[in-house]
Amino acid sequence: MSEENLKRTKEWKKIVDSIGEKSANVLSDVIEEAMSQPPRIAVIGKAGVGKTTTINNLFSADWIVGDIDTGTKYSQEASFEILSGGRLCVVDLPGLGEDLEQDEINKKMYREILPDVDVILYIMQANARDLEEDQLILRDIVLPLLSSDQKRLVVGLNKVDQIGPGGWIQAANYPSREQEKSIRIRTKDISEKLSKITHISPDQIVYFSATKAYRLNQLGEALVIAANDLGWKLPIRPKSSFDDASRLIKTVVNALFPWTKTTR
After folding, report:
1. ω before 175 within 30° of 0 (cis)?
2. Rounded mean pLDDT of 116-121?
3. By the 8 A CB rule, do 41 and 53 touch?
4. Which residues of 92-106 are buried (b: 16+ CB within 10 A; e: fewer)?
5. Mean pLDDT, range 112-133, rounded to an integer
6. Which of 5, 135, 211, 216 gives 238 a disulfide partner, CB atoms 3.0 to 4.6 angstroms apart?
7. Mean pLDDT for the chain?
8. Are 160 and 231 found together in one domain?
9. Does residue 170 sit in helix, strand or coil?
10. What average pLDDT does the segment 105-114 reach?
11. Residues with Cβ within 8 Å of residue 195, at least 6 apart in sequence
12. Which CATH number does the domain housing residue 171 bear?
């Protein structure tokens, strides 16, 4: 929200009544100056883990899939307007493990960039069988660069909708009970193994599905906590899995729970 629009709201009048117009204007200027410096989020992940879809659905962005190049060999940084308001700076960093020579280049890139970003989101596939590579990357490369500020890191376990046994209920855009149980078992196992090797707190590990907009709220909350004093600047407006539910499901939910009625 712009400063001009803020001053037209009832909330602005309450602020003026509470602290006076002069102090309110000073506060407004401070907030506007802070918002002019968007938070920087580094997103790390191998090709195909769903970085662009995660950014789009988590921040209500409108990047076309491919704006963050699949398999990029270079860091890419972009500051852009969020559809719901505010700005965000995303630094896309290539993953490791595809080529030894390129890995050395990427490690140097990590050393130059990671210490200066506000939050790091490391995305990996929850349905992948092999965790060793991600464990080693986090323990030996990413975490040492964060020094004593390791809580700036959030590990996102994406693509849980592809975990079985059990299937995704397309009409409700939600996992079946059987699949939800499988998801919890699998992600708990991953979380415990990551924590054991890297000593990352389980609170910093969040499972979700970017394409299904499943548990994006939880991922957003983790990023806000990781950002610490800058968390208020993160323009998180996650898409909900309910957005993609069938019209019938939405009608039933609105009928049963009218206080949550939505026009989505």
Report:
1. no
2. 91
3. no
4. bbbbbeeeeeebeeb
5. 91
6. 216
7. 80
8. yes
9. coil
10. 90
11. 201, 202, 205
12. 3.40.50.300
Cα within 13 Å of Cα(157), Cβ side: 27
Examine the domain organization and report whether 27 and 41 are in the same domain.
no
Residues 6+ positions from 14 with CB-CB distance below 8 Å: none
Specify the range with the lowest mean pLDDT, choosing from 31-45, 161-175, 190-204, 218-232.
Answer: 31-45
The range of the structural domain enclosing residue 65 comes to 37-260
- Would you state the torsion angle of the CA atoms of residues 114, 84, 48, 184, taken in this order, to the nearest 10 degrees? 90
| Residues written for the chain | 264
Residues 28 and 47 in one domain: no
**Mean pLDDT of the region 77-82:** 69
3 state SS of 207: strand
The tokens of 229 are what? Answer: 């004093």
* Whole-number Å distance between alpha carbons of 137 and 154: 14
Q: Which amino acid is at 114?
A: L
- Residue 177 in tokens: 């009970």
- Using omega within 30 degrees of 0 as the cis cutoff, is the peptide bond preceding 38 cis? no
Selection from 92, 148, 162 nearest residue 121 by Cα: 92
- The fraction of the chain above a pLDDT of 70, given in percent, is 70
**CA gyration radius for the chain?**
20
